[in-house]
From TrEMBL:
Protein name, as recorded: ABC transporter ATP-binding protein
Organism: Cohnella yongneupensis
Pfam families per the UniProt record, alphabetical: ABC_tran (PF00005)
Molecular function terms, GO-annotated: ATP binding
Domain of life: Bacteria
Domain ABC transporter per the UniProt entry, residue ranges: 17-245
SMART domains assigned to the protein according to its UniProt record, in alphabetical order: AAA (SM00382)
Entry-linked InterPro entries: AAA+_ATPase, ABC_transporter-like_ATP-bd, ABC_transporter-like_CS, ABC_transpr_LolD-like, MacB-like_ATP-bd, P-loop_NTPase
Keyword vocabulary terms for this entry: ATP-binding, Nucleotide-binding, Transport
Amino acid sequence: MSAVQGRRREASGNTILQATGIKRVFGKGNAAVTALADIHLDIPAGSMVALKGRSGSGKTTLLNILSSLDEPTEGKVVFRGREITGLSSAERNALRRKEIGLVFQSFGLVPLMSAYENVEFGMRIAGKSLKDNREAVERALERVGMRERMKHRPTELSGGEQQRVAIARAIVHEPDLLIADEPTAELDSRMGLQVMRVFRELVQHSGMTVVMTTHDPGIMELVDHVIALEDGKIASYTSNESPLV
Ligand SMILES: Nc1ncnc2c1ncn2[C@@H]1O[C@H](COP(=O)(O)OP(=O)(O)OP(=O)(O)O)[C@@H](O)[C@H]1O
Ligand SMILES: [Mg+2]
């Protein structure tokens, strides 16, 4: 049994992440911008959730708060029963390194490193011991379908393949929560679908929870829940009974 299968996971349907009364104001006085207000949400464990909304509606701001990259002006975030707002920046860094995986629009791979080395680098950032690395890195690459290409550098890979390597890097420490800001925005629809299939596989077989943002209407049919933001507020929350991936 692998470490992933052996680890206790939240039962599907329990809340893994909860936000209550979130407000985020940038700047002060006349220049103040209220990016988020009155946000309440529950993210069920083992689900795929998409945040959608126009540019400037607050998607990235909310994702940053949910992943403890940023602190709200008001309100609290509880991750696996533990409040993560109000932690010190060292505690937040440790939380992200150990328990959360992050994926970005622009992949963020190191150009001179092979796919393997990029993922291994992620492992070292998570503070894992070197002796376990090879197996964990290869397993992560296998899970995104990139093990055969592990010696290739990012410039030798398509955008979709690069994003899958970036996902391998984000999951190599086996986090329960994967947070992805516009992970398919730079990909054509075929490659975007490959990335969404990888997310679905992680949700189904590892019980991971994926929270992502997107502009793409096609993605809405692939996730379990869609949260629509308008002007920093939640406008609607809808669920898909039968998502298409
Ligand atoms: N560091 C900051 N300082 C001041 N204002 C900010 C800052 N970050 C975001 N904002 C403002 O907060 C609002 C929400 O921005 P955010 O980046 O969350 O939007 P978004 O929905 O992710 O947009 P996009 O789809 O373009 O990525 C915008 O009005 C933005 O200008
Ligand atoms: Mg954004």
